[in-house]
Amino acid sequence: MLTILSEIPEALLQCDARALNHVLPGPTLIKLEGQRREVLFVSVLLHGNEITGWETLRSILLNYRDRLLPRSLCLFIGNVAAAAQGRRCLPGQADYNRIWKADADMAEHALAREVLGELDGLPLFAAIDIHNNSGMNPHYACINRLGANFLYLARLFSRTVVYFIKPDEVLSLAMAAYCPSVTLECGQPGETTGVSHAREFVEACLHLSAFPDQILPDKEIDLFHTVATVKLKPGSRIGIAQSGVDFALLPDMDKLNFTELPAGSLFGWCNRPTLPLQAWDEQGQEISAQYFDVHEGEIITRTSVMPSMLSLDQEIIRQDCLCYLMERLSLGQAKRKYAD
Ligand SMILES: [Zn+2]
Asked: Cα–Cα distance between 239 and 237 in angstroms, integer?
């Protein structure tokens, strides 16, 4: 299922994400040599509609068409078939960013095993997985380990950094076993600022000779820890500010992303006295009662929380989740509680 190349096919850099399937038969790994031997691994289009990663790499590779890259690069172009249709993933496919524990039997898990097998022998320097999101979010970096090099890499992209360990089937977590690894969230697809920001970051990583031996001061970074994933109860009907549905979103709910909400904030409406949402902590415990109350059709927050990834896109809410809830973490706390 995986195509492996050691050079860039002639027509590839003329293709936007929707046209990649004219040149590539499917998911593809391209290994390119550069001046420094240690390899920068970059993955794009794990979600076919999130085109910023491909636009970023396309522009960098065009720039280096006639010269050697400053560092060896291994590029994984993920869900080419979904990209052709501008979809996150196709019906019947596993989500390409939920397959990297590579422990199940679908074709996509076999693909993940194949990719990880190829990477296993490489001298890896760092790993970058580039995504977009659909709501209003700032650009931020996610890490799954709190080591100094992970924090340095994330801070190179944004002062807003999110640490999470669930979901644990993501590519950045699998790559954390090999090298400092980061997921970039570059705003919504199609925004040119996302491409220019990601491009600056990837270029900086290509030029970085080594990770510095320095600890970031607390004031240099806004670090958040994901404490819960909020999902819709299966079978619930949703709408935006609509009466009669099981869960009604606030009309501009995505504006709450990365906003610290005090206890008692309105978080949507429901048509019955039981909560249509489920919040799960990183250990898989259901903890909705810690965060939400229902009072006369209003869903109210019980403690101060900060949501991320809230989106008004109902397909994404159904397929993935409504949002994540986060709490602020100091570097000192991070080191004491979680560093490994
Ligand atoms: Zn994504």
From this structure: 7
Q: What angle do CA 161, 140, 213 make, to 5 degrees?
A: 45
Using one digit for the tens of pLDDT, what is the confidence trace for 275-305?
999 999 999 999 999 999 999 999 999 999 9
* Ligand 1 center to 98 CA (angstroms): 10
Instruction: Report CA(47)–ligand 1 centroid distance (Å).
Output: 5
Q: Which SS3 state, helix, strand or coil, does residue 206 take?
A: helix
Residues measured by CB to lie within 5 Å of ligand 1, the ion: 47, 50, 131
pLDDT band at 337 (very low <50, low <70, confident <90, very high): low
What single-letter amino acid sits at 194?
A: G
- Give the residues across from 74 on adjacent strands: 31, 41
Distance in Å, CA 104 to ligand 1 centroid: 21
* R_g of the chain computed on alpha carbons: 20
Contact 275, 234 (CB under 8 A): no
Backbone angles phi, psi at 252, to 5 degrees: -125, 45
Angle at 186 between CA 181 and CA 192, to 5 degrees: 135
Distance CA 104, CA 322 (A): 25
Contact indicator for 246, 270 with CB cutoff of 8 Å: yes
Cα of 320 to ligand 1 centre, how many Å? 10
**Distance in Å, CA 186 to ligand 1 centroid:** 10
| Sheet containing 292-295, strands listed edge to edge, beginning at the edge strand earlier in sequence | 238-240, 247-249, 266-270, 298-301, 292-295
